[in-house]
Amino acid sequence: MTSSRPCAACSVPEAASVPEVPLDEVEAAVRWALESGDDTALRILGYGEISLVIGWPTERPVVACKRLPPFSSRFAAETYGERFTEYLDVLSARGVEPVPSSFHIVASEAGVVAYVTQPVLEAATLGPEVLRRARPDPPRAAPRSPPSSSACSSRSSPP
């Protein structure tokens, strides 16, 4: 049995623009895939450094569900969610507008897992594609090193 509910301490202001997703169903599909070795019921959008990204609904995904590794406790998941929210706030404060995101904790047979949900973005807007199309900056001259202090100490000092 799974139970999904948003982390109250981790509400992200932009989360209202992320469509609601039945994360209990998403987690059940992930558990089935892990137990059976059959991932055909999942629409895998990609793999992150520590997460699996599933499109939901599978037929025509509108939400990217990023499943994080299981947490040791609900407290650990809530703490992670709080840090995630703080991170998004810092990015915004520094002029980097993050994708609208929502953090949810899901109780599962695997323990306590969490999902970050975001709207599905066009592949062309994602970092790897942007970098693939980008041109490198023109070469610049290497910065000059300041004179070494040993060069100054080789002068003889007055008697």
Quick recap:
This protein is α+β, with helices and mostly antiparallel strands and 159 residues long. Helix content is 29%, strand content 22%.
How would the blueprint of this fold be written?
Elements: E1 3-6, H1 23-36, E2 43-47, E3 52-56, E4 63-67, H2 74-93, E5 102-108, E6 111-119, H3 127-133, H4 149-153
Antiparallel strand pairs: 1-5, 2-3, 3-4, 4-6, 5-6
Describe the protein in words:
By secondary structure, the protein is an alpha+beta fold. It has one domain: Phosphorylase Kinase, domain 1. It is built from four helices and six strands, in the order βαβββαββαα. The protein has helices at 23-36, 74-93, 127-133, 149-153, and strands spanning 3-6, 43-47, 52-56, 63-67, 102-108, 111-119. A six-stranded antiparallel β-sheet has the order 1-5-6-4-3-2, with helices on both faces. The longest helix is centred in the middle third of the chain and has 20 residues, at 74-93. It is extended, with a radius of gyration of 24 Å. The chain starts with a strand and ends in a 6-residue tail after the last helix.
